[in-house]
Amino acid sequence: MDFTFTEEQRAAAEAAGAVFSDVAPDRTPSPALTPGAVAEDIDRQLWRELARTDLLGLTLSPDHGGAGLDPIALCLVLRESAKALARVPLLETCAVAMAIERYGERGLAAELLPRAGRGELVLTVGANGRSGHDPAELAVSARPYGEADGEADMKTGGPSGGSGWVLDGVQSAVPWAQVADWIAVPAHTAEGRSVLALVPRTRDGVALADQVSTSGERLAEVRLDAVRVEARELIETAGCWDWLRSLLTTGTCALALGLGERVLAMTAEYTGKREQFGFPVATFQAVAVQAADRYIDLRAMEATLWQAAWRISTDAGGPLPAAGDVAVAKIWASDGVRRVVQTAQHLHGGFGADTDYPLHRYHAWAKQIELSLGPAAAHEEALGDLLAAHPLG
Protein backbone atom coordinates (compact mmCIF):
# COMPACT_ATOMS: atom_id res chain seq x y z
CA MET A 1 0.00 0.00 0.00
CA ASP A 2 1.36 3.42 -0.95
CA PHE A 3 -0.34 6.28 0.85
CA THR A 4 2.10 8.92 -0.38
CA PHE A 5 0.28 12.21 -0.73
CA THR A 6 0.53 14.48 -3.76
CA GLU A 7 2.23 17.84 -3.57
CA GLU A 8 -1.15 19.57 -3.66
CA GLN A 9 -2.52 17.42 -0.84
CA ARG A 10 0.52 18.10 1.32
CA ALA A 11 0.21 21.83 0.62
CA ALA A 12 -3.44 21.74 1.74
CA ALA A 13 -2.46 20.00 4.98
CA GLU A 14 0.31 22.52 5.64
CA ALA A 15 -2.02 25.47 5.00
CA ALA A 16 -4.60 23.95 7.33
CA GLY A 17 -1.99 23.34 10.00
CA ALA A 18 -0.97 26.99 9.85
CA VAL A 19 -4.57 28.21 10.16
CA PHE A 20 -5.55 25.88 13.00
CA SER A 21 -2.32 26.44 14.93
CA ASP A 22 -3.75 29.80 16.04
CA VAL A 23 -6.98 28.26 17.36
CA ALA A 24 -7.19 27.66 21.10
CA PRO A 25 -9.38 24.71 22.15
CA ASP A 26 -10.65 26.69 25.14
CA ARG A 27 -12.07 29.68 23.25
CA THR A 28 -15.54 28.76 24.52
CA PRO A 29 -16.81 27.79 28.00
CA SER A 30 -16.19 24.22 29.10
CA PRO A 31 -18.95 21.77 28.10
CA ALA A 32 -18.57 20.24 31.56
CA LEU A 33 -19.57 23.55 33.17
CA THR A 34 -22.19 24.72 30.66
CA PRO A 35 -25.76 23.39 30.95
CA GLY A 36 -26.61 24.10 27.29
CA ALA A 37 -24.61 24.81 24.16
CA VAL A 38 -21.20 26.41 24.72
CA ALA A 39 -21.93 28.99 22.00
CA GLU A 40 -24.78 30.12 19.78
CA ASP A 41 -22.78 30.42 16.59
CA ILE A 42 -19.87 28.80 14.81
CA ASP A 43 -16.39 30.32 15.11
CA ARG A 44 -16.96 33.05 12.52
CA GLN A 45 -13.42 34.40 12.79
CA LEU A 46 -12.02 30.99 11.90
CA TRP A 47 -14.64 30.51 9.17
CA ARG A 48 -13.51 33.75 7.50
CA GLU A 49 -9.88 32.67 7.77
CA LEU A 50 -10.67 29.32 6.14
CA ALA A 51 -12.37 31.17 3.29
CA ARG A 52 -9.47 33.62 2.95
CA THR A 53 -6.98 30.77 2.63
CA ASP A 54 -9.21 28.98 0.06
CA LEU A 55 -9.66 25.93 2.29
CA LEU A 56 -13.47 26.04 2.03
CA GLY A 57 -13.25 25.69 -1.75
CA LEU A 58 -10.49 23.12 -1.63
CA THR A 59 -12.52 20.29 -3.18
CA LEU A 60 -14.59 22.37 -5.60
CA SER A 61 -13.69 22.46 -9.27
CA PRO A 62 -11.97 25.55 -10.73
CA ASP A 63 -15.25 26.26 -12.55
CA HIS A 64 -16.73 27.10 -9.15
CA GLY A 65 -13.68 28.90 -7.80
CA GLY A 66 -12.11 25.89 -6.09
CA ALA A 67 -8.81 24.02 -6.20
CA GLY A 68 -10.23 20.79 -7.62
CA LEU A 69 -8.76 18.50 -4.96
CA ASP A 70 -10.26 15.24 -3.73
CA PRO A 71 -11.72 13.80 -0.51
CA ILE A 72 -8.21 12.76 0.59
CA ALA A 73 -7.22 16.43 0.74
CA LEU A 74 -10.38 17.24 2.68
CA CYS A 75 -9.56 14.50 5.20
CA LEU A 76 -6.05 15.92 5.64
CA VAL A 77 -7.56 19.31 6.47
CA LEU A 78 -10.17 17.79 8.81
CA ARG A 79 -7.39 15.92 10.61
CA GLU A 80 -5.72 19.25 11.41
CA SER A 81 -9.00 20.87 12.42
CA ALA A 82 -9.70 18.21 15.05
CA LYS A 83 -6.38 18.84 16.77
CA ALA A 84 -7.66 22.33 17.64
CA LEU A 85 -11.31 21.30 18.22
CA ALA A 86 -12.27 23.74 15.48
CA ARG A 87 -15.90 24.80 15.90
CA VAL A 88 -16.81 25.11 12.22
CA PRO A 89 -19.01 23.00 9.90
CA LEU A 90 -16.08 22.29 7.62
CA LEU A 91 -16.99 18.65 6.99
CA GLU A 92 -20.68 19.29 6.42
CA THR A 93 -20.23 22.30 4.13
CA CYS A 94 -17.51 20.72 1.99
CA ALA A 95 -19.23 17.32 1.77
CA VAL A 96 -22.59 18.76 0.74
CA ALA A 97 -20.89 21.08 -1.76
CA MET A 98 -19.08 18.10 -3.31
CA ALA A 99 -22.35 16.17 -3.58
CA ILE A 100 -24.05 19.12 -5.28
CA GLU A 101 -21.19 19.47 -7.74
CA ARG A 102 -21.09 15.74 -8.46
CA TYR A 103 -24.82 15.01 -8.68
CA GLY A 104 -26.81 18.26 -8.54
CA GLU A 105 -28.44 20.49 -11.14
CA ARG A 106 -25.83 22.65 -12.84
CA GLY A 107 -27.67 25.92 -12.38
CA LEU A 108 -28.08 25.37 -8.66
CA ALA A 109 -24.43 24.36 -8.37
CA ALA A 110 -23.34 27.52 -10.14
CA GLU A 111 -25.53 29.55 -7.79
CA LEU A 112 -24.44 27.99 -4.49
CA LEU A 113 -20.93 26.59 -4.78
CA PRO A 114 -18.88 29.74 -5.44
CA ARG A 115 -20.57 31.39 -2.45
CA ALA A 116 -19.90 28.35 -0.27
CA GLY A 117 -16.23 28.44 -1.27
CA ARG A 118 -16.05 32.11 -0.26
CA GLY A 119 -17.59 31.35 3.13
CA GLU A 120 -20.78 33.26 2.34
CA LEU A 121 -22.98 30.18 2.74
CA VAL A 122 -23.02 27.54 5.47
CA LEU A 123 -24.24 24.11 4.40
CA THR A 124 -25.18 21.24 6.67
CA VAL A 125 -26.82 17.84 6.39
CA GLY A 126 -29.24 15.70 8.35
CA ALA A 127 -27.57 12.30 8.46
CA ASN A 128 -28.99 10.79 11.66
CA GLY A 129 -32.62 10.20 10.83
CA ARG A 130 -35.20 10.38 13.59
CA SER A 131 -33.21 8.52 16.26
CA GLY A 132 -29.71 7.94 14.92
CA HIS A 133 -30.30 4.17 14.67
CA ASP A 134 -32.34 3.84 11.49
CA PRO A 135 -31.32 4.87 7.95
CA ALA A 136 -31.60 8.65 7.67
CA GLU A 137 -33.46 8.55 4.35
CA LEU A 138 -36.36 6.65 5.95
CA ALA A 139 -37.10 9.51 8.35
CA VAL A 140 -38.35 11.86 5.62
CA SER A 141 -40.76 11.17 2.76
CA ALA A 142 -40.66 12.94 -0.61
CA ARG A 143 -43.67 13.00 -2.91
CA PRO A 144 -44.16 14.83 -6.20
CA TYR A 145 -46.01 18.10 -5.97
CA GLY A 146 -49.53 17.39 -7.23
CA GLU A 147 -52.86 18.99 -7.88
CA ALA A 148 -54.03 18.70 -4.28
CA ASP A 149 -50.98 20.68 -3.23
CA GLY A 150 -51.76 23.32 -5.81
CA GLU A 151 -55.29 23.74 -4.49
CA ALA A 152 -53.95 24.10 -0.95
CA ASP A 153 -51.47 26.72 -2.10
CA MET A 154 -54.25 28.79 -3.64
CA LYS A 155 -55.90 28.90 -0.21
CA THR A 156 -52.74 29.57 1.81
CA GLY A 157 -50.95 31.86 -0.60
CA GLY A 158 -48.07 29.38 -1.06
CA PRO A 159 -46.25 28.58 -4.31
CA SER A 160 -48.48 27.25 -7.05
CA GLY A 161 -47.95 25.71 -10.43
CA GLY A 162 -44.83 24.07 -11.83
CA SER A 163 -43.14 20.87 -10.71
CA GLY A 164 -41.51 20.07 -7.44
CA TRP A 165 -41.57 17.89 -4.36
CA VAL A 166 -43.10 17.95 -0.89
CA LEU A 167 -41.13 16.76 2.15
CA ASP A 168 -42.49 15.49 5.46
CA GLY A 169 -40.52 14.06 8.37
CA VAL A 170 -37.81 14.67 10.94
CA GLN A 171 -34.02 14.69 10.99
CA SER A 172 -32.43 14.72 14.43
CA ALA A 173 -29.06 16.06 15.61
CA VAL A 174 -28.38 18.19 12.54
CA PRO A 175 -25.11 20.09 13.14
CA TRP A 176 -25.39 23.89 13.22
CA ALA A 177 -28.78 23.87 11.51
CA GLN A 178 -29.70 27.15 13.26
CA VAL A 179 -26.97 29.05 11.43
CA ALA A 180 -26.89 27.08 8.18
CA ASP A 181 -28.25 28.61 4.99
CA TRP A 182 -29.12 25.30 3.32
CA ILE A 183 -29.79 21.88 4.82
CA ALA A 184 -29.27 18.70 2.79
CA VAL A 185 -32.05 16.26 3.72
CA PRO A 186 -32.03 12.60 2.64
CA ALA A 187 -35.50 11.24 1.96
CA HIS A 188 -37.33 8.33 0.37
CA THR A 189 -39.99 8.24 -2.32
CA ALA A 190 -43.10 6.06 -2.44
CA GLU A 191 -41.19 3.70 -4.74
CA GLY A 192 -38.47 3.28 -2.10
CA ARG A 193 -35.80 5.33 -3.91
CA SER A 194 -33.36 7.42 -1.86
CA VAL A 195 -33.15 11.09 -2.84
CA LEU A 196 -31.37 14.14 -1.45
CA ALA A 197 -33.26 17.41 -1.02
CA LEU A 198 -31.54 20.78 -0.61
CA VAL A 199 -33.72 22.93 1.63
CA PRO A 200 -33.17 26.57 2.59
CA ARG A 201 -33.38 26.88 6.37
CA THR A 202 -35.97 29.65 6.10
CA ARG A 203 -38.31 27.72 3.76
CA ASP A 204 -41.95 27.58 4.90
CA GLY A 205 -42.65 24.42 6.87
CA VAL A 206 -39.14 24.03 8.30
CA ALA A 207 -39.06 24.12 12.11
CA LEU A 208 -36.00 23.75 14.34
CA ALA A 209 -35.78 22.56 17.95
CA ASP A 210 -32.53 23.05 19.85
CA GLN A 211 -30.40 20.05 20.78
CA VAL A 212 -26.89 19.90 22.27
CA SER A 213 -24.10 17.46 21.48
CA THR A 214 -21.92 15.65 24.01
CA SER A 215 -19.19 18.15 23.15
CA GLY A 216 -21.47 21.10 23.94
CA GLU A 217 -22.03 22.11 20.33
CA ARG A 218 -25.37 23.25 19.00
CA LEU A 219 -27.49 20.74 17.08
CA ALA A 220 -31.11 20.84 15.97
CA GLU A 221 -34.04 18.58 15.37
CA VAL A 222 -35.29 19.63 11.93
CA ARG A 223 -38.98 19.06 11.31
CA LEU A 224 -40.37 19.30 7.81
CA ASP A 225 -44.12 19.78 7.47
CA ALA A 226 -45.23 19.81 3.84
CA VAL A 227 -42.04 21.62 2.82
CA ARG A 228 -42.06 22.43 -0.88
CA VAL A 229 -38.80 22.13 -2.84
CA GLU A 230 -38.27 22.86 -6.50
CA ALA A 231 -37.39 20.07 -8.88
CA ARG A 232 -33.82 21.32 -9.21
CA GLU A 233 -33.45 21.31 -5.40
CA LEU A 234 -33.95 17.55 -5.19
CA ILE A 235 -31.26 15.16 -6.45
CA GLU A 236 -32.76 11.91 -7.71
CA THR A 237 -29.54 10.40 -9.06
CA ALA A 238 -29.07 6.87 -7.75
CA GLY A 239 -26.19 6.57 -5.29
CA CYS A 240 -26.02 10.26 -4.36
CA TRP A 241 -27.03 9.84 -0.72
CA ASP A 242 -24.91 6.70 -0.29
CA TRP A 243 -21.88 8.55 -1.64
CA LEU A 244 -22.48 11.58 0.58
CA ARG A 245 -22.95 9.45 3.67
CA SER A 246 -19.73 7.57 2.92
CA LEU A 247 -17.90 10.87 2.57
CA LEU A 248 -19.34 12.17 5.84
CA THR A 249 -18.38 8.96 7.64
CA THR A 250 -14.85 9.01 6.24
CA GLY A 251 -14.47 12.67 7.20
CA THR A 252 -15.59 11.77 10.72
CA CYS A 253 -12.81 9.16 10.80
CA ALA A 254 -10.33 11.90 9.86
CA LEU A 255 -11.58 14.00 12.78
CA ALA A 256 -11.12 11.02 15.11
CA LEU A 257 -7.55 10.51 13.89
CA GLY A 258 -6.54 14.15 14.33
CA LEU A 259 -8.10 14.33 17.78
CA GLY A 260 -6.44 11.08 18.85
CA GLU A 261 -3.04 12.22 17.64
CA ARG A 262 -3.31 15.46 19.59
CA VAL A 263 -4.42 13.66 22.76
CA LEU A 264 -1.55 11.18 22.57
CA ALA A 265 0.89 14.07 22.09
CA MET A 266 -0.58 15.79 25.16
CA THR A 267 -0.16 12.57 27.11
CA ALA A 268 3.45 12.14 26.02
CA GLU A 269 4.24 15.71 27.05
CA TYR A 270 2.57 15.32 30.44
CA THR A 271 4.07 11.94 31.34
CA GLY A 272 7.49 13.16 30.23
CA LYS A 273 7.35 15.96 32.82
CA ARG A 274 5.40 14.34 35.65
CA GLU A 275 7.76 12.59 38.07
CA GLN A 276 7.25 9.80 40.58
CA PHE A 277 10.06 8.41 42.77
CA GLY A 278 12.43 10.84 41.08
CA PHE A 279 11.77 9.64 37.50
CA PRO A 280 9.41 10.79 34.73
CA VAL A 281 6.37 8.49 34.70
CA ALA A 282 6.90 8.04 30.94
CA THR A 283 9.90 5.86 31.77
CA PHE A 284 7.74 3.36 33.69
CA GLN A 285 7.02 0.23 31.71
CA ALA A 286 3.30 0.19 32.51
CA VAL A 287 2.94 3.74 31.17
CA ALA A 288 5.07 3.11 28.08
CA VAL A 289 3.15 -0.04 27.14
CA GLN A 290 -0.22 1.70 27.37
CA ALA A 291 1.01 4.61 25.27
CA ALA A 292 2.46 2.19 22.72
CA ASP A 293 -0.88 0.38 22.43
CA ARG A 294 -2.61 3.67 21.70
CA TYR A 295 0.02 4.53 19.09
CA ILE A 296 -0.83 1.24 17.37
CA ASP A 297 -4.51 2.20 17.47
CA LEU A 298 -3.71 5.49 15.74
CA ARG A 299 -1.68 3.81 13.01
CA ALA A 300 -4.54 1.39 12.33
CA MET A 301 -6.99 4.31 12.27
CA GLU A 302 -4.73 6.09 9.80
CA ALA A 303 -4.29 3.14 7.42
CA THR A 304 -8.00 2.34 7.28
CA LEU A 305 -8.90 6.03 6.88
CA TRP A 306 -6.70 6.51 3.82
CA GLN A 307 -7.94 3.27 2.30
CA ALA A 308 -11.53 4.48 2.60
CA ALA A 309 -10.71 7.99 1.37
CA TRP A 310 -8.84 6.55 -1.61
CA ARG A 311 -11.79 4.34 -2.59
CA ILE A 312 -14.16 7.32 -2.44
CA SER A 313 -11.75 9.61 -4.30
CA THR A 314 -10.96 7.23 -7.15
CA ASP A 315 -14.08 5.05 -7.40
CA ALA A 316 -11.61 2.16 -7.50
CA GLY A 317 -12.99 -1.35 -7.45
CA GLY A 318 -12.27 -4.02 -4.88
CA PRO A 319 -13.51 -7.30 -3.44
CA LEU A 320 -16.12 -5.31 -1.50
CA PRO A 321 -17.90 -2.07 -2.38
CA ALA A 322 -16.30 1.10 -1.04
CA ALA A 323 -18.83 1.00 1.81
CA GLY A 324 -16.85 -1.95 3.20
CA ASP A 325 -13.67 0.10 3.52
CA VAL A 326 -15.65 2.96 5.03
CA ALA A 327 -17.16 0.58 7.61
CA VAL A 328 -13.72 -0.76 8.57
CA ALA A 329 -12.37 2.79 8.94
CA LYS A 330 -15.29 3.80 11.16
CA ILE A 331 -14.94 0.69 13.33
CA TRP A 332 -11.29 1.54 14.00
CA ALA A 333 -12.02 5.26 14.42
CA SER A 334 -14.85 4.71 16.92
CA ASP A 335 -13.07 2.16 19.08
CA GLY A 336 -9.62 3.69 18.64
CA VAL A 337 -10.45 7.25 19.62
CA ARG A 338 -12.32 5.99 22.68
CA ARG A 339 -9.34 3.94 23.81
CA VAL A 340 -6.94 6.84 23.22
CA VAL A 341 -8.84 9.34 25.37
CA GLN A 342 -9.55 6.79 28.10
CA THR A 343 -5.86 5.92 28.36
CA ALA A 344 -4.97 9.62 28.32
CA GLN A 345 -7.34 10.30 31.21
CA HIS A 346 -5.85 7.37 33.14
CA LEU A 347 -2.24 8.46 32.58
CA HIS A 348 -3.01 12.09 33.45
CA GLY A 349 -4.51 11.03 36.77
CA GLY A 350 -6.65 13.65 38.49
CA PHE A 351 -5.11 16.37 36.33
CA GLY A 352 -7.05 15.03 33.34
CA ALA A 353 -10.34 15.95 34.99
CA ASP A 354 -9.28 19.54 35.71
CA THR A 355 -11.62 21.81 33.74
CA ASP A 356 -8.82 24.38 33.40
CA TYR A 357 -6.89 21.80 31.36
CA PRO A 358 -8.20 20.99 27.84
CA LEU A 359 -8.09 17.18 28.02
CA HIS A 360 -11.69 16.91 29.20
CA ARG A 361 -12.79 18.87 26.12
CA TYR A 362 -11.06 16.35 23.85
CA HIS A 363 -12.72 13.53 25.77
CA ALA A 364 -16.17 15.04 25.18
CA TRP A 365 -15.46 15.58 21.48
CA ALA A 366 -14.10 12.04 21.17
CA LYS A 367 -17.33 10.59 22.56
CA GLN A 368 -19.35 12.66 20.09
CA ILE A 369 -17.17 11.51 17.17
CA GLU A 370 -17.30 7.89 18.32
CA LEU A 371 -21.09 7.83 18.11
CA SER A 372 -21.54 10.14 15.10
CA LEU A 373 -22.99 8.39 12.04
CA GLY A 374 -23.08 5.11 13.94
CA PRO A 375 -20.88 3.53 16.61
CA ALA A 376 -18.49 0.67 15.88
CA ALA A 377 -21.17 -1.98 16.45
CA ALA A 378 -23.44 -0.50 13.77
CA HIS A 379 -20.64 -0.56 11.21
CA GLU A 380 -19.63 -4.09 12.20
CA GLU A 381 -23.19 -5.13 11.37
CA ALA A 382 -23.03 -3.25 8.04
CA LEU A 383 -19.71 -4.91 7.22
CA GLY A 384 -21.19 -8.32 8.01
CA ASP A 385 -24.06 -7.64 5.61
CA LEU A 386 -21.59 -6.66 2.88
CA LEU A 387 -19.51 -9.79 3.44
CA ALA A 388 -22.64 -11.93 3.24
CA ALA A 389 -23.65 -10.28 -0.03
CA HIS A 390 -20.12 -10.36 -1.51
CA PRO A 391 -18.37 -13.57 -0.36
CA LEU A 392 -14.59 -13.30 -0.52
CA GLY A 393 -12.59 -15.96 -2.29
From TrEMBL:
Its cofactor is FAD. Residues 252-379 form the Acyl-CoA dehydrogenase/oxidase C-terminal domain. GO terms for molecular function: oxidoreductase activity. It comes from Streptomyces sindenensis. The keyword Oxidoreductase applies. Gene3D superfamilies: Acyl-CoA dehydrogenase/oxidase, N-terminal domain (1.10.540.10), Butyryl-CoA Dehydrogenase, subunit A, domain 2 (2.40.110.10), Butyryl-CoA Dehydrogenase, subunit A, domain 3 (1.20.140.10). Residues 38-120 form the Acyl-CoA dehydrogenase/oxidase N-terminal domain. It comes from the Bacteria. It holds the Pfam family Acyl-CoA_dh_1. It is an enzyme of class 1 (oxidoreductase). The keyword Flavoprotein applies. This is Acyl-CoA dehydrogenase family protein. SUPFAM superfamilies: Acyl-CoA dehydrogenase C-terminal domain-like (SSF47203), Acyl-CoA dehydrogenase NM domain-like (SSF56645). Keywords: FAD, Flavoprotein, Oxidoreductase. InterPro entries: Acyl-CoA_Oxase/DH_mid-dom_sf, AcylCo_DH-like_C, AcylCo_DH/oxidase_C, AcylCoA_DH/ox_N, AcylCoA_DH/ox_N_sf, AcylCoA_DH/oxidase_NM_dom_sf. Belongs to the acyl-CoA dehydrogenase family. Its EC number is 1.-.-.-.
